[in-house]
Prior knowledge:
Helix content is 38%, strand content 17%. The chain has a 4-stranded mixed β-sheet, with helices on one face. A 3-stranded antiparallel β-sheet has the order 5-6-7, with no helix packed on it. It has 11 helices and 7 strands. It has 313 residues and is α+β, with helices and mostly antiparallel strands. The protein has 3 domains: 8-21 and 32-92, no CATH class; 102-220; 226-256, no CATH class. The protein has helices at 8-12, 35-41, 43-59, 72-84, 94-101, 103-117, 147-157, 161-166, 170-183, 265-275, 292-304; strands at 124-127, 188-193, 196-206, 212-220, 226-232, 238-245, 250-256. A hairpin with a 5-residue loop joins strand 3 and strand 4 (212-220). The model is unreliable at 131-141, 226-255, 286-291 and 309-313 (pLDDT under 50).
Amino acid sequence: MNQTQASPDLVSRCVPIRFYFEGNPGEREFGDRDPLSYAKQHRTELLGELAGMVVCWNQRGRPTGARRHRLSHWANVVGGVLLINGLPEFLENLDTSAAEFNTDLDELAALAERVVGSHASAAFLDTPSPGTLMKSSEKTATNGLSATGWEPIFRKVGIEVDRLDAAKSKRGRTTIVGNWLARLTDREVAITVGDRSGNATLKIRQGRSRKKYYLFEIRWEQVNDATTPAVDEKTTGKKCKTTVGKSHGGIRQSPKKTLPAQPTKKGAKIAAKKNAPREKEACPQNVRQRPRGLWAEIKLQATQNPGETLQGW
């Protein structure tokens, strides 16, 4: 039936299918086509095609299907037959289709949107999108909430309210909330909060004394709104700041003038000293060139004993 809602247990035993028709399905006309009459008329050909698919699957070693289902043997056999015959899409969109029939997933999405919208930071954690880095302000981890802490949020969203009111003790209410959360752990749902959209996944964290804490991991869809600096000093000698965003409608560049650095007095003295010409001292012809320290020693000896030759140097 269209817009059918069922329990997760019933949905997991079925294979949801989608038929799309634009308009009122009750007024749809099939013309002269009659599927039942066609099947009876071409029964032999249809059975031959199906038998050929099974024979091909048997000759190829009977591989199993790649998709998981609660009825595992049926999914392995039928999925394998279709896979060998060029139909690998079997059960590919099972989770997405089943989510439309599952009332618990609708309530899980409402629960996630509630904690994010009310800024209950202990109940959710933002995770970075693929290829992006987390800001330092976003790295604050959360411990999650126990089943007792989730009870008031359940009541605000309207989840299991009748059963919670009928429970006679606090422990009974905690058990109801804990069982509901444990059943949907690691399930992912789409959420929309304000102008942001993303996916929320319910996670569980083990605490001390086997106590369990639950929280949502939120992964937002990436939005192209950033400010990127661009430098073009070789051609213009100016620094430009490029701003990209929705409100600007494109790229806007604002040149920023940069003034040349003014030398200080100390820097001017050092530069003048480096650029000043240096006088070269004459070196005796019979003295080989030596390092600066050794040449100073030779000059000192030649000054003290001008009559001696420095043959040993």
